[in-house]
Specification:
- It is a single chain.
- The protein is an alpha/beta fold.
- It folds into 2 domains: 6-122, 2,3-Dihydroxybiphenyl 1,2-Dioxygenase, domain 1 (Roll); 141-299, 2,3-Dihydroxybiphenyl 1,2-Dioxygenase, domain 1, CATH 3.10.180.
- Helices cover 20% and strands 36% of the residues.
- The relative contact order is 0.17.
- The model has no long low-confidence stretch (mean pLDDT 97).
- It comes from Streptomyces cylindrosporus.
Length: 312
């Protein structure tokens, strides 16, 4: 089966009133590197990633997701996808054009079925990056991005139909039914996922660490610093990756992870994992219980950016 025109996850842009505390969190605690700041917008990179930046922070009167950005292999692919989406009736925010963000590039933006802004770009200049050293507990790259939807089945169908993502696995809560869907655009088990929630919102941003030791050191650093701990450390069944979840300074859930599974694009067959079975929610058995507190934090606040394009 042909892979989608989207190649990978680039970055996530979020906004909130308390920009200074957000910046301090991601820079001084979480381990990202500021690469550029202009007119109050901050771009932060992962030392182990060639992406110009993986998180963009902006001050806004309301907490919101500005956009999620994916890569494409070429300008021709960007144009092809833009034309296809327009023909399918997808609301375009702006047509393909040269981008003014760090690394420039060529891209366009559109609303997904829930009203999030999605950007797809090509020809973005890469940045110098390095191998993360042993015991260095900072992110290597942005691993995946998960969103909440009050109509998740439709959201999953939208990403499969319009963007060519493929379902990797699903989580269910016993007889209560499915509640999370993992989608891939390359050989990583998931770069994007959709969770059932009471409203459209950010579920979590996930950051890949060098290995188990670095993942645990990062987890321990957050605990020692008194960062609000949500869930973990543990190891998921779907994706086989580790997890430790915390809250950033405005209540978005962020995750340290490592060893996310890679799968064969054509041969991987989706499974449904019932997380009422202990081994399916945490293979190690080390995490705190998944309960209403954990779920409530991951539901997050309603996104004020739904069908509202960010100012930049």
């Amino acid at each position: 089966m042909t892979k989608p025109l989207i190649t990978h996850l680039r970055h996530v842009a979020i906004a909130a009133p308390d920009l200074d505390r957000q910046l301090a969190f991601y820079r001084d605690l979480w381990g990202l590197t500021p690469v550029e700041s202009e007119t109050g917008v901050h771009f932060l990179a992962a030392e182990g990633s060639p992406e110009q930046y993986i998180v963009r922070l902006r001050k806004d009167d309301q907490k919101r997701l500005d956009l999620v950005s994916f890569g494409a292999a070429s300008a021709a692919d960007v144009d092809t996808l833009a034309a296809r989406l327009a023909q399918q009736g997808v609301r375009i925010v702006h047509e393909p054009r040269k981008l003014g963000t760090p690394g420039a590039g060529y891209g366009f933006r559109f609303f997904d079925g829930d009203g999030r802004v999605v950007e797809v770009s090509s020809d973005v200049a890469t940045r110098s990056f390095r191998t993360i050293e042993a015991r260095e507990s900072i992110p290597v790259r942005l691993s995946h991005f998960v969103v909440n939807s009050d109509n998740p089945e439709a959201t999953v169908d939208w990403y499969v139909k319009h963007l060519g993502f493929k379902l990797s696995d699903t989580l269910c809560l016993g007889a209560r039914g499915d509640f999370m869907w993992f989608l891939r655009c390359n050989d990583w088990h998931h770069s994007f996922a959709v969770a059932r929630g009471p409203h459209v919102a950010v579920h979590h941003l996930s950051f890949e660490m060098r290995g188990i030791d670095e993942y645990l050191r990062g987890t321990g650093r957050m605990l020692r610093e008194g960062v609000q701990h949500i869930w973990g450390p543990g190891r998921h069944k779907a994706g086989d990756n580790t997890y430790s979840y915390f809250l950033d300074r405005v209540g978005n859930c962020v995750e340290y992870t490592t060893e996310l599974e890679t799968v064969d694009w054509d041969r991987h067959h989706p499974s449904v994992y019932d997380v009422t079975k202990p081994d399916f929610i945490d293979q190690w058995g080390t995490a705190n219980q998944m309960n209403e507190f954990v779920a409530k934090q991951q539901f997050n606040d309603p996104d004020h950016g739904v069908f509202v394009a960010p100012p930049l």
